[in-house]
Every structure is written in structure tokens, then in C-alpha cells.
Amino acid sequence: MNILRKVSVRELQHNLSEYFELAKIAPISVTKHGKGEVVMLNLNKYKVIKKKSSKKDKRGIMSLGFFGMYKNRKDWKGKSTTEIAEDLRHRATYGK
């Protein structure tokens, strides 16, 4: 497993071409205010990871069982799991 090299946004801005080349070899975690924000990753490695994850479960978040647990809620009646997920995201972002 590759160890993520951590770099701040400011450092990345000042040395973008250097980190661009390093990201081709190993993933780089970009931090903002000390918190991880994004990962720079070689495109071919990303494709491999994406392919592996899609083979495991094509349903993604919908397979977690959470939605089935509340399937009988009155306000979700007749909605697809995708609509429920969007509703939850909206509520988490903007409140009720």
C-alpha cells in the first residue's frame, strides 16, 4: 500500500509541477488548514481503483441497508432510493 504524502494547498500552489510528477508515482493528500481535502492520484491507478470498487457492488450507497431500514416512512413512500438519498443530502446541507 502506498503511503500518502501530505502537502498543504499553499505548498502545492508554489510547486505544482513537482507535485504533479510525484502524484504520477504515489498519491498525494492535499490539506487545507491542516485537514485533508483532496487526493492527487495517477489516472491509471484511479481507473483500477474505480473498476475494482464497481465490481464489488454496483449499487454503491444504496446497498448499505440504511434505506431499507426506513422504507416504511410515510414521507418517503413512493420515492426511489436515489430520491431518498438526495432528500437526505439536501437536509444535511440546508436543514429541514
From TrEMBL:
InterPro entries: Antitoxin_Phd/YefM, YefM-like_sf. SUPFAM superfamilies: YefM-like (SSF143120). It holds the Pfam family PhdYeFM_antitox. It comes from the Bacteria. Belongs to the phD/YefM antitoxin family. Antitoxin component of a type II toxin-antitoxin (TA) system. This is Antitoxin.
